């Protein structure tokens, strides 16, 4: 059975932020629903399509409320709660909508081709003595991002999750803001502060599953279905009976962030796990709704998908038969640059690493594009068309580091912890000056000394299982060193950025290189162009590539030795616009690097 057709007008959330004049809950699985408001129990009246309502007393800011289904013993939080101040199992809180109004005067910005910056609130700007960071402490560091040249901040998930610390991908309340980060009012302050500085704000949201603790949705109604399976169990119900209300539940959450709170975009986690055999696909329906909200708000709104499928259809407009996402993460670009810079070949890096692969992926985005993937053991993906009118290089988010590629390593070590600063500089030059939409991960701009490990704060029942599972996972991979225990608070504290180091020694040198690259990107149209057809990569040696971007070129040499001659020819350039590493001009008139490094050149050519 398929879901109901998408309505011509995108659905509004059942209780729009700023208009919560009554308590409402969708509970089609219940015959009766009671609500407890500040200790007083009331019977809710049944309404249409499985909804229950209560108008008196009217919701007031600060009120605590919870629902009881039929004769059950549990008092359950509101699936659409904006605030869970006492955690995922406790009562919900009514929020003063006036405190959450969008930034006045903010006209938004197009994020395709912008420089994005991914951060985790708890570790980005920590408090004193190892205290977790909040949205308010993060505000204090926004000026540093402006100075760096960042255009938009991408927040890892804020949806309320168990405990105080975690990555946020085990959220249990898709409308609420995690209380340890300051709750929804703090998010509103952060958005205003970012917009005041010209920074857009993107939020990472998880629609494909809920965490194992605090997930009460299945008690209310058919939010999940066994028709489809995901790595987390039953799939979110997008195409079975009751799916129309479930889809509206997700659309309402998206509208809350983008319209009611005034954020600029959403990054959608693992969209390949949104199992939907109906038409239109949920992502296409979301794209249509967001297009209508753009018209309503007068601001550009952006949808960024994380997808494992390597399918250009993800970023193809719905009118051309695609899913309508504005951008998608491009993991193959990361894998190609990482494996080339580090020499790693284990796991999904097996097909990557050679300079020829790097040269193909930088302009082609996908390595596995209707070709065989040894890691998956099958043919995978479809090719990107550099001449497509439906998408370009800016449709693909590229990165050297992100939370997954760092945090899912056994110790959470970053790429620069295992390579020279020159190789790091070469790798990031290919990302920041390539045809994609570049994204940085917190702290990489100064080669942060701290890792970003996997950490959790589950209860005494679930926590030990997570710790044991993490250790067993890496033991099976042959990892012999100790794996940080995700449940230990020290793992979380050890992942917090140390801002005092950012201007010291090699940290400060790398920070200046990142600033220089971003400034060059802004100054030269050729370096910020998304034209894939205008991007060409020459392999000078296995350690050296020359990426041509229109009239400019990016020389990337991983070292460790000197820049080798290409077939006896010498690299010449009319002008060096910027460089990192031991660059010199030889007596032959050529450009030489005596070790790992990078340079941005005008008029680059090989001769001799």
UniProtKB/TrEMBL annotation:
Q: Which one GO biological process term can you cite for this protein?
A: trehalose biosynthetic process
Q: Which UniProt keywords apply?
A: Carbohydrate metabolism, Cytoplasm, Glycosidase, Hydrolase
Keyword field contains Hydrolase: yes
Q: Give the originating organism.
A: Brachybacterium paraconglomeratum
Q: Where in the cell is it found?
A: Cytoplasm
The annotated active site, in chain numbering, is: 269 (nucleophile), 306 (proton donor)
Q: What is the lineage of its organism?
A: Bacteria, Bacillati, Actinomycetota, Actinomycetes, Micrococcales
Q: Name one GO cellular component term.
A: cytoplasm
NCBIfam families of this UniProt entry? trehalose_TreZ
Q: What class of enzyme is it?
A: hydrolase
Output the Gene Ontology terms for molecular function: 4-alpha-D-(1->4)-alpha-D-glucanotrehalose trehalohydrolase activity
What's the protein called, per UniProt?
A: Malto-oligosyltrehalose trehalohydrolase
Which residues does the UniProt record annotate as the domain Glycosyl hydrolase family 13 catalytic? 118-521
């Amino acid at each position: 059975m398929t879901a109901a057709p998408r309505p011509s007008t995108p659905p509004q959330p059942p209780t729009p932020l700023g208009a919560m004049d009554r308590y409402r809950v969708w509970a089609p699985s219940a015959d009766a629903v009671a609500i407890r408001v500040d200790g007083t129990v009331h019977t809710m009246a049944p309404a249409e399509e499985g909804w229950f309502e209560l108008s008196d007393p009217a919701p007031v800011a600060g009120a605590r409320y919870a629902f009881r289904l039929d004769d059950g013993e549990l008092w359950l939080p509101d699936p659409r709660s904006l605030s869970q101040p006492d955690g995922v199992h406790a009562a919900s809180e009514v929020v003063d909508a006036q405190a959450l109004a969008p930034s006045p005067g903010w006209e938004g910005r197009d994020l395709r081709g912008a420089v994005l910056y991914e951060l985790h609130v708890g570790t980005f700007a920590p408090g004193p003595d190892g205290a977790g960071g909040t949205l308010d402490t993060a505000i204090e560091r926004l000026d540093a991002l402006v100075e760096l040249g960042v255009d938009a901040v991408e927040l890892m998930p804020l949806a309320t999750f168990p405990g105080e610390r975690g990555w946020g991908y085990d959220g249990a309340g898709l409308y609420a803001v995690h209380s340890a980060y300051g709750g929804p009012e703090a998010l509103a302050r952060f958005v205003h502060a970012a917009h005041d500085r010209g920074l857009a704000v993107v939020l990472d949201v998880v629609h494909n599953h809920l965490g194992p603790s605090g997930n009460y949705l299945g008690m209310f109604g058919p939010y999940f279905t066994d028709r489809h399976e995901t790595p987390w169990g039953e799939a979110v119900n997008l195409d079975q009976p009751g799916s129309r209300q479930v889809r509206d539940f997700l659309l309402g959450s998206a509208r809350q962030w983008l319209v009611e709170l005034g954020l600029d975009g959403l990054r959608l986690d693992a969209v390949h796990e949104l199992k939907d055999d109906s038409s239109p696909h949920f992502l296409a329906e979301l794209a249509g709704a967001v297009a209508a909200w753009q018209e309503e708000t007068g601001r550009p709104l952006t949808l960024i998908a994380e997808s494992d499928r390597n399918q250009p259809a993800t970023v193809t407009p719905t009118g051309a038969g695609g899913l309508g996402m504005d951008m998608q993460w491009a993991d193959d670009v990361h894998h190609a640059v990482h494996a080339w810079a580090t020499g790693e070949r284990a796991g999904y890096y097996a097909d990557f690493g050679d300079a020829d692969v790097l040269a193909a992926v930088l302009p082609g985005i996908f390595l596995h594009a209707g070709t065989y993937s040894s890691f998956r053991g099958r043919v995978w993906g479809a090719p990107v068309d550099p001449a497509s009118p439906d998408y370009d290089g800016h449709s693909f988010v590229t990165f050297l580091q992100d939370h997954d590629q760092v945090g899912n390593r056994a110790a959470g070590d970053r790429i620069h912890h295992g390579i020279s600063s020159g190789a790091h500089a070469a790798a990031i030059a290919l990302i920041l000056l390539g045809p994609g939409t570049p994204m940085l991960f917190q702290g990489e701009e100064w080669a942060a000394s701290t890792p970003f490990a996997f950490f959790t704060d589950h209860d005494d029942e679930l926590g030990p299982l997570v710790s044991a599972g993490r250790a067993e996972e890496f033991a099976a991979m042959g990892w012999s060193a100790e794996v940080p225990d995700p449940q230990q608070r020290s793992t979380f504290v050890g992942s917090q950025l140390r801002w005092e180091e950012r201007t010291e020694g090699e940290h400060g040198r790398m920070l200046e290189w990142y600033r220089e690259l971003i400034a060059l990107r802004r100054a030269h149209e050729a370096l910020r162009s998304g034209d894939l057809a205008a991007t060409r990569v020459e392999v000078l040696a296995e350690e050296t590539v020359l990426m041509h971007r229109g009239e400019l070129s990016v020389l990337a040499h991983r070292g460790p030795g000197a820049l080798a001659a290409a077939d006896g020819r010498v690299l010449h350039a009319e002008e060096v616009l910027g460089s990192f590493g031991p660059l010199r001009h030889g007596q032959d008139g050529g450009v030489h690097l005596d070790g790992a490094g990078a340079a941005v050149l005008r008029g680059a050519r090989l001769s001799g």
